[in-house]
User: Fold Amidohydrolase family protein from Nocardioides jiangsuensis.
Amino acid sequence: MLFRGGYVHTPADPHATALCLEGGQVVWTGDDDASAHFADGADRVVELDGRLVTPAFVDAHAHLAETGLSAHSVDLSEAPTMTAALDALARHAATSSFPLVLGFGWDDSRWPEGRPFTRAEVDRAVGERPAYLCRVDVHSAVVSTALLDAFPELTGHDGFDGDGLVARHAHIHAREAVFRLMPGAVRREAIARALGDAARQGIGMVHEMGAPGDSPAEDFARIAEVSAAGTLPEVVGYWGQLDGVERAVELGCAGAAGDLCVDGAIGSRTAAMHAAYADADTIGHLYLTADQVRDHVVACTKADIQAGFHCIGDRAVAEVVEGLRQAAEIVGVLAVVQGRHRLEHLEMATPEEMTLLGELGVTASMQPVFDGAWGGDDSLYAQRLGPDRARRMNAFASLNRAGVALAFGSDSPVTAFGPWAAVRAAAHHHTESERVTVRAAFNAHTRGGWRAARRDEGGVIALGAPASIAVWDVPGELLVQTPDTRVAAWSTDPRAGVPHLPDLHPDLDLPTAVMTVVHGRVAFEEPGALT
Assistant:
């Protein structure tokens, strides 16, 4: 395939307007005049008409089946009140023939009622049907009486509330109950739908975060089936099970990592904190100790697979960092660095912890839209923790300065696939000192995702690199984003040769993908957009 007549974002040739893909690799970049040498032998010549070509994005943290199940669920994320959410739920239940009633995305912190709905309220909305209604952070949910009748053992688990709210272990078992009620074919279709959605967003690789209670291990076989049936984004799998090294290898995963939870989430007040929440008398919940972290990291390092943990609260991060430090004492710093272990979310870390993580070669797999949605002095983080703690969260710039590699993702369905929105959120962090440049955020969402999977060959348009690219309609101008206005004049001069990226000012529309290519094969193309 030959692409010409656009702007190709490549560090190899910052003035490139054309590129050629062959055999699943980038084989040439250059200008339109030189592209004539490739035109006769090309299977397809794509006229870009000024469009931007970039490496395809990597979503470094997603849950595919849950994302794709939106077709069978009701989206409660836009409900302005609890009453409105219950009305939407009732309408959905009245028209859905699915075996159970599913709802996602509700956020009680935005409702004037200031609380989740109760089991009795849900029962009135859904009737005598099993229902599972997940909070936006996917760390707590409300279930109906019918679901409890089908799985009465749920009431005996830690985290069960008589009003139907389930958190902690009760939530894990509630999700497993949902898996048992859902046909495998439905999950396979949902995975295909989610990967198709990712391709439409210019995403060429997704890191699937499987774990007991998050998704059944059988989903990895379903992902393989879906991937074999057509061209879709590549999937790198992780299985987050403590002492699960052999199981992760058996499943073909890159690591016993991902959603191996050390704690929960801020919104559900289950993230483990040193000091109490500002709006409740709790410090959250710690699920793993530093000793358990240490032993898991040692086992993964010796097996040459990645270890990784979900950690959000400052107490959870402290346990993980201490566990990593102890592991390095056992197997050596170099072995830990070579393991390229990863931490998911990492929302609250001290400068000292960041320094150690940088020295140990740990990747921070983060979700910038979390700050976009819940950051700021009047949003969820500030409600739960107070403004001072909230301002220090999701410290992209501080982590970058400490030498911690960044990889960005969505945690879909917690937030939607939307890589340019994530890049913009990182560049416009609510705390100005934690902002990174558009260029740094873009790199974290492309090359950073490949490196987070211990694969250094991709995420960039360069000779010999995997031919995973995206073509974009850009509503605004292409600019050079610089961290310092003193160098802006030179960097934006054509003679500087710095690759340009879209203007992502919050008032502007975001770029739209018109084609996504994965390893040289088209995974998505907007009908009629390209000739």
Remarks:
- The longest helix spans residues 314-331.
- The domain at 64-181 is CATH 3.10.310.70 (Diaminopimelate Epimerase; Chain A, domain 1).
- Residues 483-496 have pLDDT under 50 and may be disordered.
- The two ends are 12 Å apart (CA to CA).
